Amino acid sequence: MTNEINGSKKVIVFQLKDEEYAVSVDQVGSIERLQSITRVPQTADFVKGVINLRGVVTPVIDLRARFGIEESEYTNATRIIIVYLEDMEVGLIVDVANDVIDIPEDSIGAAPEVVGAVDVDYIAGVAKLEKRLLILLDIQKVLSTEEVDELKKVEG
Amino acid sequence: MDTSQYLDVFIDESMEHLDVLYNQLLELENNPEDKTIIGEIFRAAHTIKGMSATMGFQDLANLTHNLENVFDAIRYDKIEVQAGIIDVLFETVDHLNAMVKDIINGGDGTRDVTEVNVKLENIEKGNFFSNTASDVVPEEKHANNGSNLHSFTSLDEFELAIMEESLERGYKNYEATIYLNEDCLLKGARVFMVFEVLEQLGEVIKSEPPVNELEEENFDLSFTILLVSKSSADEIVHKINKVSEIANVEIEEFSLENYKINRNEEQEIGEVKEEKKEEKGSTSTDSVTTTAKKKQSNVRNTIRVNIERLDMLMNLFEELVIDRGRLEQISEELNHNDLRETVERMSRISGDLQDVILTMRMVPINQVFNRFPGMIRQISRDLNKNIAIDIIGAETELDRTVIDEIGDPLVHLIRNAADHGIELPEDRVKKGKTEHGTITLKAYHSGNHVFIEIIDDGAGIPRNKVLNKAIENGIITEAEAETYTDQQAYELILASGFSTTQQVSDLSGRGVGLDVVKTTIERLGGSISIEAEPDKGSTFSIQLPLTLSIISALLIELQEEKYAIPLSSVIETVIVHKDEIFHAHHKMVIDFRGKVVPLVFLNEFFNVPKMKEQDDYLSIVVVKRGDKWAGLVVDTFIGQHEVVLKSLGNYLTNTKAISGATILGDGQVALIIDSNALIK
Q1: B650 to chain A: which residues are within 8 Å by CB?
Q2: pLDDT tens figures, B462-500
Q3: Is pLDDT of A127 > 70?
Q4: Which of A84, A97, B116, B295 has a beta carbon 3.0–4.6 Å from A79's, enabling a disulfide?
Q5: pTM of the predicted model as reported, rounded to 2 decimal places
Q6: Contact B652 A59 (CB under 8 A)
Q7: Which of B83, B84, B76 is closest to B35 using CA atoms?
Q8: What is the pLDDT of residues B655-665, one digit of tens each?
Q9: Where is each HPt domain found (chain B) (predicted)?
Q10: Of the candidates A57, A87, A145, which has its C-beta nearest B669's C-beta?
């Protein structure tokens, strides 16, 4: 990764409910305020629709819904983090976008084994920083279309 | 020299010249005597040679060089055009094509072409056919004699007068032929330098080829000029030789008397020769020169623009269209007179601008059709069939992006028609048909669409075989098969999974991979349908949108949500009373002009939240797909707008009945309804 200088990793930190998550800055295009979203019918529940991102129609997904956390009203602090992945461009709706920080590589541990948890495929690791605990996300898995397609089939 | 920056230009131009080669070769096959065709081919080959040598594609340059030599020989009547020769020439062009393709794919265009090179060299030497070898010798002699004659076979009165006058005044008339070095890179510049020298010495009356062709480097390595000068021949040669990259200069005095004698002789020889002479492009009469003039004006009035720049322009224009929509909306709200007038003017101008930009991106479908005659020729040979190809409407224009995509599907369909449609000659005769089958390629505009039809007069499609195979492969059930109309049955060959043939062959099986064709066409926003009649033939019709980026759409509202329905599929909007809705087979239908049209309630279909109370009247958009109609029930019509088509991105790929999105004047995203998907 390009941002691994001196064994550290630059990430964007955001919050969902009371937990902090992190995505690599490489994959983040911008952080946007909430704007009006056009619903797209017959898509997965967590796909909130599409927005006009400076002329580009960009899908947005609600990360709370995607992770199975109970949804809440959007507030002034709600942000859309635009992430890029290969040829995809998707907005992630998060409660608050907190920070850009460097995480030392050696503070990153493996994803915890959660007994009976639903699906934690998209957790790439966990970073402990003094008193903070950051959950590193694997955006590829978060956006995995196969899974989205699966879901569609189940709901369809 | 770093040539990578020229690679795109090189590829573009090579492809164009290859097209010319293919076309002109086909023409030549029918008119082996036509010198203009031979000239065209020679020039195309020559240009490719020059370009590829500059770019360092040596194999390509060598092969074109040999091709060029053959045509040079044909041009000067050293050899005759014969069927066998044409075959080798086609083979050569196929090789050239493969090399250029290799270069396009990042290769260096190397290819083993020793065999075809040897063949070409043999042709050039005139011993390709032993039986014609004897004919060749005298011809060659004739050509040699010819070189002693003046290259200027026709001079106009004015030119003759100048020369006569110059003689009277003690000037001399010279005819000089200047040969450039074979590796001369900037021939045009050399010519310019030579002319500069010549103009110091005297006056150039005429050149062969003409000056404008010299400027465009439309000549081989030599050119001939008529010069009026007081200097001696030696002095002229000496001065011309000072220009670098000159291989040789031949000069002799131009004898007016000889010229006059020759001309009189030639005039007596009769019409046939007369024609040939004219084709050499020296006189200013007849169709030959008019076509030449046409070509010149084409060259002068066009410039080559990178498609990326056009795309960029298009993108910017799309932004403008969105802002225009916004302005229109604001001006309506404010109801300010001056503002409204200005906005109206701006709308009109940008409408014109849109037309200009769209036409700039339009290219004739000829670019795609071009390659098919050659292909058909090859296929008929491979299959031992007798197939002719008839092309109608090659000038029909299509958006560049569509052109780029449509080639492969067409190749597929044409191969399919040749392979499975057209029968073997003996079978055709048994059926009482002509021995040769015909594949007709037809393109035409209709409304906002382009139609392309591939028609063959072959065996048609065996309905039962298709149905059986579809049942076998689990695409349909036997019960379904019973209910299928002929057309539905034929269209099964486009279904994915129809053909399970694993064998990869050069020619497609009927149905092999045709699902790809269907997918490609649908991705382009088009559709394909099939009609066929046993032993009469089949017709594959493709309907494509003219352009992919800006469309006219009807904006409608479903509760709070706005959607766009492409106008191309809308027949009419109607408002009907609830009482006029009938139930037929658990479906709601209306009687629309005597036609029973099923209704689709979009609110339900799209799960629009908060259903509004049902009105007594329903607003319905009647849409069509082929000859099937449906009524889409909406809440409100907003009106017709030009919208810019945008994709939903690669994340939302399987959206049902939504083909994309657009951005409205207020910045909101509206989804575009794919009404085709709503009509069953």
Answers
A1: 87-89
A2: 888 888 888 887 778 888 888 888 888 888 888 776 764
A3: yes
A4: A97
A5: 0.49
A6: yes
A7: B76
A8: 888 888 988 87
A9: 1-103
A10: A57
